[in-house]
Amino acid sequence: MVDIKVVGPGCKNCVELENRVKRVVEEMQIEATISKISDFAEIAKSGVLMTPGLIINGKVAIQGKLPSEGIIKNYIIEALRS
């Protein structure tokens, strides 16, 4: 099971990141919980300094950019190995 958090206030790139994460998880056919952190106080606590951000299994994977689906998949694969 992979725990994925999409971090951002709801901007266009944040929404697109969430959509890409959902597509990758569906394509990989893995069990994952996908949640959003959009409250500014929670974003500040998350360790993400620039949005959009992606936290996988408690570790900040991406911040301040919109990664491709391939990059997202690589981060998830890495999380599954550890």
Short description:
The chain is an alpha+beta fold and 82 residues long.
What are the SSEs and their pairings?
Blueprint: E1 2-7, H1 12-28, E2 32-37, H2 40-46, E3 53-56, E4 59-63, H3 69-81
Parallel strand pairs: 1-2
Antiparallel strand pairs: 1-3, 3-4
Helix pairs in contact: 1-3
Describe this structure in words.
This protein has about 80 residues and is an alpha+beta fold. The protein has a single domain (about 1-80), classed as Glutaredoxin, CATH 3.40.30.10. The protein has 3 helices and 4 strands. The chain has helices spanning about 10-30, 40-45, 70-80, and strands at about 1-5, 30-35, 55, 60-65. It has a 4-stranded mixed β-sheet. A hairpin with a 2-residue loop joins strand 3 (about 55) and strand 4 (about 60-65). The longest helix is centred in the N-terminal third of the chain and has 17 residues, at about 10-30.
Helix content: 40-55%
Give the CA-CA distance, first to last residue: 12 Å
Question: Which overall shape is indicated by the principal axes computed on the Cα atoms?
Answer: globular
Structural class: alpha+beta
Secondary structure: number of strands: 4
Q: Low-confidence parts lasting 5 or more residues at pLDDT below 50? A: none
The CATH topology: Glutaredoxin
- Identify the CATH architecture: 3-Layer(aba) Sandwich
Strand order of the largest sheet: 2-1-3-4
**What integer is the average pLDDT?**
96
Beta-strand proportion: 25-35%
Kindly give the count of domains.
Answer: 1
